[in-house]
Amino acid sequence: MSEFSRYHIGTPGQPWGDSEKQQWLAEQTPKRSYFDDVVVRIEQLRERFDVEQYGELDYTSKVGRKYPLFLVKSKEWRTELPTILVTGGVHGYETSGVHGALRFLETHAEYFQTRCNLLVAPCLSPWGYETINRWNPDAVDPNRSFVHPVAPAAESGLLMQAVADYADNLLLHIDLHETTDTDNSEFRPALAAREGTVNDNWNIPDGFYLVGDAKKPELEFQKAIITQVSQVTHIADADEDGKIIGVPLSETGVILYDGKGAGLCMGLSNAQYVTTTEVYPDSVNATPESCIQAQVAAVEGALKFALSA
């Protein structure tokens, strides 16, 4: 790993204050539409699923807009069946997470509805989706904000409230993410600047990998997903130190984090089977379509294993 050049906002060694955060926010601009790309497709699912607005992000004073948030649920809820949660777009810039969740709903979800109750939140961070951003307008990372009693990011807190009645009884939670070249060129340097620390880049892995929960790794479950995804895209190799993003491999294409301890989305519940997908869209061997297919394959592999275990 090597130190990256200093971020252009802030003073080295000093955490950001309100003025630096305002400067950062002023530089962010919409590049695509959550309403056109995501909400329209969610609305088209209403005939086959229950669509529930579980909250609204009111960023009128910051960016001049409110964003409705949606859960797509099995239409015929059966209490005797296990419940499955799929989340996407916790980091809005990680495109295939959002579109993978939507594609799963459009193509595969109905098959599984007879075997489980489905909860799918396709895009937790609409502003991040529109501006291709990791943070929300307050310069807070939603995927470090799934904490009690008060989540630092509204995106996280609203989902936690929405699934609170299911959190202790989920069988499976799979959270769809990407690792991109901009992690090194933009987001890690920005994080170090915000915190007043020094940034060290990590080696961006070329290929798909998983981040399981160190407290309940369920490695056979993780391996089943890797096997399913390997049919549609390549799996990331470890670096020369035997690691992926600085963490030792536990299995081929699998590393482990403390989900709850780090405030990650995958730690929001007590599900038995938990994982976070990571797709690499900047690979010369990847396309936007193959990345979406990898996310769908990951969900399919996770469901097949959990429902047959």
Automatic annotation (TrEMBL):
Span of domain Peptidase M14: 30-309
Region Disordered, annotated ranges: 1-22
Family: Belongs to the peptidase M14 family.
First and last residue of the signal peptide: none
Protein name: Peptidase
Gene Ontology terms describing biological process: proteolysis
A single MF term (Gene Ontology): zinc ion binding
